[in-house]
Amino acid sequence: MCRVVNLIDEYTNIINKYYDTPLPFITATGQWLISALYGRYFVCPALPENTKKPNLFFVLSSPPLFTRRTTVTSIAKRLFIKADSEITGLPPNQIKDKFIEEFTIEGIADHISATGFEDYIICSHEFGMVLTRGRRQYLEGMLSAMSKLYDGIGHKQYLSTRGGKPAGREIPDRLYVTMLAEMQKAEIYLNQLMLSQGFLRRVILIPQSHEDLDINRYKPFISLERKFCPFNLDKFSEKLIERGKIIKQFFEENGGEIIIELRPKVINVINKLDRTMFLSFKQTGDEKQIYFGSYPAFITKLAMIYAIADLDNEIKEGKGVREDRKIYYIFVYENHLAKAISFFRPIFTRVQEKLEKIITEREVQPLKTYETVYNKIERLCSGSGMTMGQLLNYLNTTKNQAREYLETMFEMEKLFIVWHKTSRKPRIVVFTDEEKAKQYYKKVENQGLKAILFDKSNYKQFLTRW
Predict the structure, then answer these.
(1) In CATH, what class is 365-465?
(2) Which long-range contacts (CB under 8 A, 24 or more apart) does 91-99 make?
(3) What are the residues whose beta carbons fall under 8 Å from the beta carbon of 377, sequence distance 6 or more?
């Protein structure tokens, strides 16, 4: 058996042996793993500002069932936590704090402020619901903040100081942020706003459908062979850790990022592609080009990741501007670019099909649906409030379906819930008026009953309890 020298290829081979997840999903999670673990230690000065780092935003899109996208994202995240803990010397529980699962500007800024890392991962098991949470203006602000995280640009939000609140929240410059998220059918959730605003052109969207399931790769639900998967992943993680420690050592000796150099043939291919995209957009003004214009940036970053993951691609020493200072380099060769193009070209074709639907539909239905649900909750729970059971009945929905809406309204400080004991089972009353909620809470307490008032500050306790 020939030796596999690229960590992305080795990861893909291991997962492919035990799971029938579509290969683009497997490969993408391997690419994300390398980007998240090592990318912050590198920079490519030849690239435009805000694209010099090899950070990647991935969204895996497919209908639920049988694509097993959550399986592979969970494996990749576990590998990251284990390897990054060994490389940095931080405990695994602290590494877990690098994962951002808050999707409001306030939540993201508060998470970063509380943890203080220089690198983060945005993640969501159902990113489509994140995109349907806010009204248009609110969604624009959230997408803008996430775009700035991708670019490594800081973000400042000014807030009202009523009630002793802080005057503003700030996300610092030069953070290194990657993304690994999942969603159902992309054309349901993505819309014109996301395309023109700029967030979508920073995301490598990987759509898969039932047609992409390969019967020749089918793996049974119960497989005795699968018990060997953890052992092989542990052996693989040892290679991740070894490579990471070498990279970190060069980074520290260098006093900063290791330089990524693109070989001349690589530069020629990418620049030719970029010029083709430029001329096409100039001639047609096609809105799809807003996304496809990022093709050169995507394949460049992917090629950089393949170069970093190549165990035979050594980091080399060179001379900097100052004679007394060493500079360390790693090169991107044609084979690394070829791997990037081979992966991304079919993805490009599939995304083009999705964008045809997005561009022809000026409004996306889930945003309208969310607005309707939001208004219903606000109307039904105004005044004296409404019990949770009554609210779910009026909305004709389940706890799990309502959870996303309630969480968003909590974050927007539009929802207040009083939980209290009764002679039988606990009672949950939902309010959209803060004063009415407080009055009800005091009334219950005066009756000698144990009660809790849930708002933005503690709503996660309610969601856990509920």
Answers:
(1) mainly alpha
(2) 99/123
(3) 391, 395, 405, 406, 409, 415, 430, 432
Q: Which of 270, 315, 316, 314 is nearest to 293 (CA)?
A: 270
223-246 as b/e, with b when 16 or more CB fall inside 10 Å? eeeeeebeeebeebbeebbebbee
- What tokens were used for 347? 């993805």
DSSP 328-388: EEEEE-HHHHHHHHHHHHHHHHHHHHHHHHHHH-SS-HHHHHHHHHHHHHHHHTSTT-EEH
Query: What spatial distance separates the first Cα and last Cα of the chain, rounded to whole Å?
Result: 53
Q: How would you list the strands of the sheet with 42-43, edge to edge?
A: 42-43, 258-262, 326-332, 316-319
Is 63 strand, coil or helix? coil
> Which region, left, alpha or beta, applies to residue 347 given φ > 0 means left and ψ of -120 to 50 means alpha?
alpha
pLDDT at 192: 67
pLDDT band per the 50, 70, 90 thresholds, residue 135: very low
The angle subtended at Cα 344 by Cα 74 and Cα 181, nearest 5°, is 30
Token code pair at residue 158? 């000014």
The Cα 85–Cα 117 span in angstroms is 13
Q: Which helix (H) or strand (E) holds 127?
A: helix 127-131
**For 395-424, what is each residue's pLDDT tens digit?**
878 887 788 778 878 877 889 999 998 877
Q: In terms of Cα–Cα distance, which of 425, 418, 410, 414 is closest to 452? A: 418
Q: Is the per-residue pLDDT at 160 higher than 50? A: no
Residue range(s) in the chain whose domain bears CATH number 3.40.50 = 7-360
Structure tokens at 70: 């959550």
Helix (H, G, I), strand (E, B) or coil at 207: strand
Q: Which of 331, 336, 302 is nearest to 315 (CA)?
A: 331
Beta bridge partners of 121: 99, 178
Angle at the Cα of 456 from the Cα atoms of 452 and 461, rounded to 5 degrees:
50
Distance CA 263, CA 82 (A): 33
CATH among 1.10.4160, 3.30.470, 2.60.40, 3.40.50 for 7-360: 3.40.50
Kindly report, as residue ranges, where domains of CATH 1.10.10 are found in the chain: 365-465
DSSP string, 399-450: HHHHHHHHHHHHHTT--EEEEE--SSS-EEEEES-HHHHHHHHHHHHHTT--
Helix or strand run (H / E) with residue 146: helix 136-151
DSSP 166-203: -SEEEE-TT-EEEEEEEES-HHHH--HHHHHHSSGGGS
Measured between alpha carbons, how far is 320 from 445 in angstroms, rounded to an integer?
Answer: 70
What is the rounded CA–CA span in Å between residue 431 and residue 444? Answer: 15
pTM over 0.70: yes
